[in-house]
Structures are given as C-alpha cells and as structure tokens.
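Let's do one together. I've listed all components of the complex below, 226 residues spread over two lines.
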Amino acid sequence: DAGVIQSPRHEVTEMGQEVTLRCKPISGHDYLFWYRQTMMRGLELLIYFNNNVPIDDSGMPEDRFSAKMPNASFSTLKIQPSEPRDSAVYFCASSFWTSGKYEQYFGPGTRLTVT
Amino acid sequence: RKEVEQDPGPFNVPEGATVAFNCTYSNSASQSFFWYRQDCRKEPKLLMSVYSSGNEDGRFTAQLNRASQYISLLIRDSKLSDSATYLCVVRVSGGYQKVTFGIGTKLQVIP
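Okay, and this is what the predicted structure of the assembly comes out as:
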C-alpha cells in the first residue's frame, strides 16, 4: 500500500492567496483527519470525516478554512484568504475503525509558508 | 488546563541509559491511550498502545495509571536511533476515533 498521500509537500504563498491542500487516504480506511502542527501548539485536530461525512469541525480555526471529502479516496483542505499565522505543517491521516484498534496513519505532511 | 500535558524536554541522555516520560490527561472519560513517535520533519507513527495492565515491546514499556490520570513510557538501553519526539495520545470514550495529542517530549540520545 502506498500509504497516505499528500500534495503539495511544500507550499509558499503570499498573504491573501488561496491555498488548497490535497490528501488521498489509504484505500479501505473510513476515517480521515486533518491536523495542523506548530512548535507552539503541537498537533491540533482541525476536522475529521467518517465515510466522507464531516463529523467534527470544531477545530477549524475560522471561516477562512474549509474541508471537503467528495469521495472515499480524496479530500481537500482550503484556506482562503491565507494569512502568515497559517504557516504550519498540515497533516492528513486515515484510519480504519476495527474493534479496539484506533491507529491513525499519517501522510508526510504539507509544509505551508505564508509570507 | 490542557487535555493532554507533556514535558516538552528536551531530554538529553547518554546511549545505554534508561529514560522515562510521563503524560497526564484531564478527562476521566478517556478510554484509549497511545504513544506515537515523530522523527524530525517526519510524520507521527504509532509506537505502541497502552493497556490497563501495562505492556512491553522490546526495550519499551508503557504503563497507565487511571487513578492519577497519567501514562508513562520507559525506554531501556537507549539507542541513538531512539532520538525523536514522543507524543502522548488520548481517546475519550465514544464511538468515534477522535484523539488528542500532547505537544510531545523531545528525546536526544547522545553518543
């Protein structure tokens, strides 16, 4: 299995621009998570989906952030307009809920820099 | 109070030493506990789950203390390759897979 795939791996953009991050979960996994990691705040859950349906978006910082999962093999996280404080590493993770097993598999992350 | 608290370190230990990390959690309804490892500029990966009775995987031992609401990770005979950040992860009971990550404890094993 290829694992969780994220693109782009690095993104540098100017304040005010739209940024779209992409994720392909592991085939067969029914949960997908978007996280943001910074030195100060660590790894924060932004939103997660179950069977393509958003379950909890309470971690989404504000209306500038939106996430979609149009099908089981693709999800996007969009920031519009971007701001310098959005600079962070954004991870996508997926998992398959079997009884007693909650391991999440992370993608390599997208390192976002907003100037 | 944070849901999951860890000492960010860094912990600098010589090769061969034994090192222990603790992690405290605030929600008494927490049900599942894990340690993840994150190498520099890489993604987190599951190191081990933590069971009520405690569990061991080679040089690694994880323990849970529900009464005091903390979990621990013990690493014996530290190797240079153990240098990484160790993330404490907690899942509150319920049907979903939402977990909360601690900020991580950085370990540097020195030759």
